[in-house]
Amino acid sequence: MAKAYSFLENHVMAEQAKVKAYAVFSAGNFSEAVRNFSTAMSVGPTNYLLNSNRSAAYARLNKFSEALSDAEKTVKVKPDWSKGYCRLGGAHLGLGRFDDAVIAYKKGLECDPDDEALKSGLADAEYAASRSRAEPERKALARKEKELGNSAFGMKDFDAAIAHYTKAMEFNDEDISYLLNRALA
């Protein structure tokens, strides 16, 4: 049978887990930090700082769904705390929800307009959002440049082919065929 702990014993265990969580987080052991933050939250009163810090640990582990869940709890409990929105924006960014990240960072800046982390996060989110919206167009332009390069290659105009393949790579650096075609030219 499990031992029943008193309120004071629970509080002491929660504090010990919290202290250990901060120490292992600082040391870069994010899995252990998550475990200790979870322990602190299960035996003691949950507060926005524990949710926020566990969100950060989850984010460092690339577990963005879990990070989002804790960040949402953080801003629900403490909606006037800018750092909670920083956690929320980062989790959305990690999940590729760029427009939601922009909204979160802007909400945080309403709480603290001078927060550099929020400003930086907002810039990253806006850039990612604009890039994701432009991605289909950029890929289409890359394919068009490849076609022009293939045509130039077929006419043995290798300088033009190289120029077109290089331009294709500028539009879409994820498709290796542009690099290979340029190497052949």
List the helices and strands and how they pair.
Layout: H1 7-26, H2 30-43, H3 48-60, H4 64-77, H5 82-94, H6 98-111, H7 116-154, H8 158-171, H9 176-184
Helix pairs in contact: 1-2, 2-3, 3-4, 3-5, 4-5, 5-6, 5-7, 6-7, 7-8, 8-9
Rg, alpha carbons = 24 Å
How many DSSP-defined strands?
A: 0
Q: List SSEs in N-to-C order.
A: HHHHHHHHH
Look at the helices and sheets and give the structural class: mainly alpha
- The helix tally amounts to 9
Principal-axis shape:
elongated
Largest sheet, in brief, is: none
Low-confidence stretches: none
Q: How large is the share of residues in beta strands?
A: under 5%
Which range best describes the helical content: under 10%, 10-25%, 25-40%, 40-55%, 55-70% or over 70%?
Answer: over 70%
Average pLDDT value? 91
* Cα separation of the termini: 76 Å
